Amino acid sequence: MLGGAFDNQVLRTDPVRLIVDSEHEKWRLDRYVVELLPTLSRTRVQSLIRSGHILLQGSTVKPGEKIYAGQEVLVSEPLKMTTLIPEAGTLHILYEDQDLLVINKESGITVHPGAGISRGTLAGALLAYCSLSQIGGAERPGIVHRLDKETSGCLVVAKNDVAHHRLSQQFALRKVKKTYLALVQGIPTKTFGVIQAPIRRHPVHRHKMSVARPSEGRDAVTLYRVVTSALGMSWVECRPETGRTHQIRLHLKYLGYPVVGDPVYGKRGNFPRYFLHAWKLGFKHPTSGISMEFCAPLPAEIQIIPFPLTTAN
Q1: Which pLDDT tens digit goes with each residue over 119-138?
Q2: How many domains does the chain have?
Q3: At what angle do helices 29-36 and 42-50 cross, to 10 degrees?
Q4: Residue 144's closest CA among 161, 130, 124, 125?
Q5: Regarding beta strands 152-158 and 276-284, do their DSSP bridges make them parallel or antiparallel, or are they unpaired?
Q6: pLDDT tens across 264-279, in order?
Q7: The domain containing residue 62 runs over which residues?
Q8: Is 262 in the active site?
Q9: What number of other Cβ atoms are within 10 A of residue 213's Cβ?
Q10: Which of 43, 63, 80 is the last residue of a domain?
């Protein structure tokens, strides 16, 4: 159990060892590390490469160095314990063992500190509850993946570095099964389909993402299925095959059916939040290898159209 405020001590995690596979051959080193350790930002990774904390084949290289199958990448991030303070908070735990927790995150809770937010985060509540992996850094202990502040639902958290690394690899290799439910404006003309539209940061509005040309954005793929429709709105089941920022919200907007209550890609209206929920999460246990799937029930505040659970499997 960890408690109390962090001091200014600088710690270092055990190095994370990555072996490049053929799928990532000829990628830039910085892009590869971000892909496999998504809790690290591109800027942070580039800084770690330049400072010698990320090595390729045991040597320091530039962030843009091309990588090849079979090469070894060692990541050892220095951790400055200055920001995150363990805080009492309510955790809705769907599952827990010695390696991980699966949380049903409430809407309105920020996952980890950043951009002027240092208190009241899920990471702070988790740190007050148990010991966590430190791979993600001092501000993101145990955080393997993220949900936006208003998105509710399933989130997996790692208790140790081995579990964190193995779970991160599953996300990076697209082996994690993620199923979201979105209430959208309108009734899609096609009841199912695939949205393939590359995503990049919006060139003007930096808080937004935008659909881009293939050469300018990162590939993004979302499978969708309309579950039910009423009152000019539809429940849509979404299965993202990639994990880009704002992917589902942007892709549904691109399709022509923005998420209800979304002030960025649609309209807020009189709704307190946007209606996106991380419904199911499936992955292999990082220690046993057993396939596991978890389901977070829909919050009451977004069920303005009843969701027929029996029709969505």
Answers
A1: 778 999 999 999 999 877 77
A2: 2
A3: 120
A4: 161
A5: parallel
A6: 999 999 999 999 999 9
A7: 10-80
A8: no
A9: 8
A10: 80
